[in-house]
């Protein structure tokens, strides 16, 4: 069947012409074509290897935090902030005079 379908491709035959020459119904030829064609996303093994180099992913610095207090103060805090220090700053900003 593979040879018959390859002949159709090679000679540019229509399904009707191939059906007439092979003595098989068109539906059966089309069924075999779908059955023998590779599935989408699958590859046939080529038998060769490709060299790859594994590298460590780059570690980007974490983005700073941006905090807006209830009273409207906007603070940009680096990723490596001291939580106790930040708490004292926010309390100082929110204290009413």
Structure in a nutshell:
The protein is mostly helical. It contains four helices and two strands. A hairpin with a 5-residue loop joins β1 (65-68) and β2.
What structural class do you assign from the helix and strand content? mainly alpha
Average pLDDT, rounded to a whole number, is 84
Note the total helix count.
4
Helix content: 40-55%
Radius of gyration: 35 Å
Major β-sheet strand ordering: 1-2
Beta-sheet strand percentage? 5-15%
Largest sheet: 2 strands, antiparallel
Q: What's the order of the H and E elements?
A: HHHEEH
Number of strands: 2
Distance between the termini: 91 Å
- The 3D shape can be described as rod-shaped
Low-confidence stretches: none
Describe the structure.
This protein is mainly alpha-helical and 97 residues long. Among the domains are: 2-36; 65-94, no CATH class. Helices cover 42% and strands 8% of the residues. It has four helices and two strands, in the order αααββα. It has helices at residues 2-11, 15-22, 26-36, 83-94, and strands spanning 65-68, 74-77. It has a two-stranded antiparallel ribbon. The longest helix is centred in the C-terminal third of the chain and has 12 residues, at 83-94. It is rod-shaped. The mean pLDDT is 84.
């Amino acid at each position: 069947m593979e040879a018959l379908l390859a002949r159709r491709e090679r000679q540019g035959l229509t399904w009707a012409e191939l059906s007439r020459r092979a003595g098989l119904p068109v539906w059966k030829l089309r069924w075999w074509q779908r059955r023998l064609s590779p599935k989408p996303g699958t590859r046939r093994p080529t038998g060769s290897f490709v060299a790859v180099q594994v590298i460590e992913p780059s570690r980007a610095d974490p983005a700073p935090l941006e905090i807006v207090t209830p009273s409207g103060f906007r603070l940009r805090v680096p990723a490596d902030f001291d939580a106790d220090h930040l708490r004292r700053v926010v309390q100082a900003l929110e204290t009413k005079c």
